[in-house]
Amino acid sequence: SAVISQKPSRDICQRGTSLTIQCQVDSQVTMMFWYRQQPGQSLTLIATANQGSEATYESGFVIDKFPISRPNLTFSTLTVSNMSPEDSSIYLCSVETNVVEQFFGPGTRLTVL
Amino acid sequence: GQQLNQSPQSMFIQEGEDVSMNCTSSSIFNTWLWYKQDPGEGPVLLIALYKAGELTSNGRLTAQFGITRKDSFLNISASIPSDVGIYFCAGQAGGTSYGKLTFGQGTILTVHP
Questions:
Q1: pLDDT digits (tens, 9 = 90+) for A65-112
Q2: Is the CB of residue A110 less than 8 Å from the CB of residue A80?
Q3: Could you give the CA distance from residue B29 to residue B23 in angstroms, rounded to a whole number?
Q4: What residues does B104 pair with on adjacent strands?
Q5: Cα–Cα distance between A95 and A75 in angstroms, integer?
Q6: Cβ of residue A48 closer than 8 Å to a chain B Cβ
Q7: Numbers of helices and strands, H then E, in chain B
Q8: Fewer CB within 10 Å: C terminus or N terminus of chain A?
Q9: pLDDT of residue A110
């Protein structure tokens, strides 16, 4: 498994601002992902964070809204840009180990007013 | 896109009872994963299944990868209060979808002492 930390753990933001969420892993991993979990809902994949290249976004998610960085094999950031109340969600990063198992961080709980 | 139908949506049981939940898909998955999410936490991996027909146990939990590769179930035996939480199934299709998890809607489990 892997130990994953996220910062911040929660935040309350104003409409129109941006928030950058950090994800740190205790070991080098090839694959990192970002998910969104809207209130009372399941998890939806936002994008795959690729080390050294642009992230791969899923349908319905765009780079201008959710820019992602992956500078090395242990760290990634997700920015939620120009936020609106509809962006209020839990944002989770996950990593995949060699064995095709994904482990999740504790999540960042975002409230947009 | 791929969708997973998870049932039941919620369960209210007495301590000591057995629990069963399942997921079905319209398409084939190469890997099935079962997670548990406690309030305020990220999902925790319970069991991973890699081959059609595979039956795997983890303590009181047993999960099976359906022979058609389109379904999976999770059983919890002799439930205890700490089993309370939301259980998610997740499937990974492989190929160009390698690493990308599709999640079921979740089963909310309540255990009465």
A1: 999 999 999 999 999 999 999 999 999 999 987 667 899 999 999 999
A2: yes
A3: 12
A4: none
A5: 10
A6: yes
A7: 0, 11
A8: C
A9: 97
Report CA torsion sign: B26, B28, B32, B37. Answer: negative
* pLDDT, chain B, mean: 93
- Helix H segments across chain A? none
* Tens digits of residue pLDDT in B50-75: 999 999 999 999 999 999 999 999 99
Q: What residues have CB less than 8 Å from A29, skipping those under 6 apart?
A: A2, A73, A74, A95, A96, A97
Report CA dihedral (A37, A111, A85, A32) to the nearest 10 degrees.
-40
pLDDT score at A75: 96
Check whether B48 has a pLDDT greater than 90: yes
Q: Which residue is listed with tokens 């504790």?
A: A106
Whether residue B105 contacts residue B89, with contact meaning beta carbons closer than 8 Å, is answered with no
CA nearest B69: which of B102, B46, B45, B93?
B93
Q: Does A105 touch chain B (CB under 8 A)?
A: yes
pLDDT at B96: 67
d(CA B50, CA A24): 27
The CA-based angle A1-A100-A43, given to 5 degrees, is: 85
Chain A CB within 8 Å of residue B91 CB = no
pLDDT at B2: 63
Closest CA to B22 of B9, B39, B37: B9
Cα B21 off chain centre by? 7
**CB nearest to B101's CB, from A59, A102, A105:** A102
